[in-house]
Specification:
The protein starts with 7 loop residues before the first strand and ends with a strand. By secondary structure, the chain is mainly beta. Strand 3 and strand 4 form a beta hairpin. It is built from no helices and ten strands. The protein has an eight-stranded antiparallel barrel.
Length: 134
């Protein structure tokens, strides 16, 4: 991927957690809202807000998540270098996201496997973004 492929704004299409057993969960509901932005100066920011049917108590992180910082592109992944975030554990972290671009202007970002806080399950993120031309 070259940087010009991702520059601009992206609108959230879907977000799912995938378990190693193949179970999918939409942690932010069926119609979450979100914006992801990459600039040519390697600045990025993202915000995801849960669907209306999701209550604060349904999510351990609340109804929204947001972070911003810089990014680096590698052969098969993007590193988000988080500077500010709604979750303390994300601040100063490097969030690795594998990427693929589809012919219909979708950016698919997925994470490495991670362990849930209660250590009962391994999960990965699968997030689909649509190019936002607004």
């Amino acid at each position: 991927m070259i940087i010009s492929d991702i520059i601009g704004g992206w609108r959230l299409k879907s977000m799912q957690w995938v378990s190693r057993t193949g179970v999918y969960k939409s942690p932010f509901g069926n119609e979450p809202q979100g914006i992801l932005t990459y600039t040519k100066n390697h600045i990025m920011n993202v915000i995801i807000v849960a669907s209306e049917e999701i209550n604060d108590t349904d999510l351990p992180i609340g109804r929204y998540i947001a972070y911003a910082g810089t990014y680096k592109i590698s052969d098969d992944h993007i590193i988000h270098e988080v500077k500010v975030a709604t979750l303390d554990r994300l601040i100063n972290s490097q969030e690795k996201r594998y990427y693929s671009l589809t012919p219909n202007d979708q950016l698919i970002l997925s994470s490495d496997w991670w362990h849930t806080d209660d250590e009962t399950e391994w999960r990965a993120n699968a997030i689909v973004w649509e190019k936002n031309y607004i």
